Amino acid sequence: MRVEFRLSGSGGQGLLLAGIVLAEAAILDDKNAVQTQSYGPEARGGSSKAEVVISDEDIDYPKATDPDYLLALTTDAYRTYGSIMGKGLVIVDSSVRLSDEIKARTVSVPILATAAEKIGKKVVANIVALGVLGGLSKAASRESLEEAVQSRVPKGTEGLNLSALRAGFDLADLAMAQPDYRRATAASPEAALEDARTARRNARRGENDGRYR
Amino acid sequence: MRVEFRLSGSGGQGLLLAGIVLAEAAILDDKNAVQTQSYGPEARGGSSKAEVVISDEDIDYPKATDPDYLLALTTDAYRTYGSIMGKGLVIVDSSVRLSDEIKARTVSVPILATAAEKIGKKVVANIVALGVLGGLSKAASRESLEEAVQSRVPKGTEGLNLSALRAGFDLADLAMAQPDYRRATAASPEAALEDARTARRNARRGENDGRYR
Question: How many whole angstroms separate alpha carbon B78 and alpha carbon B91?
Fold first, then answer.
C-alpha cells in the first residue's frame, strides 16, 4: 500500500527534518520511502513543503499526487494545499483558521501550543507533528519513529525530541476522537463510538499531569 | 535549463545534507530546485543516494532521469549508478577503483583525502563534494553555496565547512584540468588547453601551503 504525506508550514518549522525522519522510520520497518523537498514558486511566499511517500512496493513516482495526509501548520499553508486535497485527511494546527471552502476531512490539533507549553521548546513542533502523523497513519511504527528521531536530531536533544514525539502520539489519539475523523474512518456508528472512547482514554492517560517527559 | 545531480556513496557520508544545501543555494539564485532522497532496495546494501534537480523553469518530474552529474564516493556506488549513466559526467573519489565497463565521462578527485588531511575532518567530505559539484556545474553560485552551507551546518562548524567548500571548488578546478573533462566540454583544442592552464593556475593558487583555511 502506498501512503502519501505532504507536510506544509512556514520556513524554519523543520518540516524537511520531519519528512526525513518519517521516511527513515519507514525504512527501519522494511518499507520503501522517498522524501522530497521542493523549492521554488510553489514553496515561496513564506511557505515550506516537504513530501514523503511510503510503500510496501517499489515507488515509481516519488511525489504526492493525492496525499493521504496533509499537515498544515499555518493558515497560509492550509489554504494553499488544503484547497487541492482530495480523499485525504487534513491535519491543521489549532492556530489555523478553518475555511468552509476547503471540503476535505479535517482535524485540528494543538501542535504548536503543545511544543511551546508542554515541551517548553517551540522548535520541536516538527517532531510533535511527526508523532501526530505517525499515530494517525501508522505508516511507520512508533519504535522506528523513536529510533529515527534519535539518529537525526542534534546530539543532546534526543530526550526532548522523544518527549515531543510522545506528545504527538497523544495528540493523534485526540484527533481520532474528533467527529470528522470518526465519520471518515469508522466502519459503523458503534465502531466510531468505541474509537472515540479509546481515544479519549488514551488522551487522558497521556495528560495525567499535563506534562510530557 | 534543467540540471540533474545524483549524489551517491555510503550511508553516513552526509550526501542528503549536501543535496539539501545544493538545492537551497539554487533557490538563493532564484532558480527552482527539488531535492529527493530515496530509501529502499535501490538504496540498500550500504549505498546511499540523494538527488537534486535545478532548473530555471518549473520542475515537473522531480527525479534525475539522465543525470548531468553523478557523484560516487565509493566503488559500490560508482558501479551501481555509473553503469546507468548516459550523457553526464561521473565524479568519483580517488579511492574508487575505475572500471572499463563504465563508459561515461569520468573524473577522479581526492574528496575523502582532502577532507581528512587538508581540512582535518573526515565528516566534511560531503561539503568538499558539494564544492566540487558547484565548481563543475555552476548550477548554483559560489556565494549562494556559502550562504546555504552556513545556514544548514551545525552551529560552531561554519568555518570548518566553508573551508571544506573552498577546498571542493579547488578540486573542481583540478578536475577540469583532467583530459576526460576537457575532451568532453571544451569547444576546441585551443580552448581545452586554455581551460587546463587556467585550472592548473587556480589549483596551484589554492594549494600555496597545502592547507585550506
Answer: 9
Q: Does A39 touch chain B (CB under 8 A)?
A: yes
Residues of A in contact with B14 (CB under 8 A): none
C-alpha gyration radius of chain B: 16
Give the closest-approach CA distance of A6 to chain B in angstroms.
14
Complete DSSP assignment for A139-195: SS-HHHHHHHHHHHSPTT-HHHHHHHHHHHHHHHHHHHTSHHHHHHH-SSHHHHHHH
Quote the minimal CA–CA distance from A68 to chain B in Å: 19
Cα-flanking dihedrals φ and ψ of residue B141, to 5°? -75, 155
- The residue of chain A with its CA nearest to that of B51 is A36
Residue B156 touches chain A, beta carbons under 8 Å: no
Contact between B135 and B109 under an 8 Å Cβ cutoff? The reply is: no
Burial environment of residue A67 by CB neighbours within 10 A (0 to 12, 13 to 18, 19 or more): buried
Q: What is the pLDDT of residues A4-53, one digit of tens each?
A: 999 999 988 999 999 999 999 999 999 999 999 988 655 555 678 899 99
Chain A nearest-CA residue for B40 = A32
pTM given for the model: 0.80
Q: Give B72-119 pLDDT, tens digit per residue.
A: 999 999 999 999 999 999 999 999 999 989 999 999 999 999 999 999
Could you tell me if the ipTM is greater than 0.90? no
Measured between CB atoms, does A23 come within 8 Å of chain B? yes
Q: Can you give the residue ranges of every domain in chain A?
A: 2-204
Which residue's C-alpha cell is 522506528? A144
CATH of A2-204, one of 2.60.40.3080, 3.40.920.10, 1.10.150.120, 3.50.90.10: 3.40.920.10
CA–CA min distance B27, chain A (Å)? 7
Partner A contacted by B157 (CB < 8 A):
no
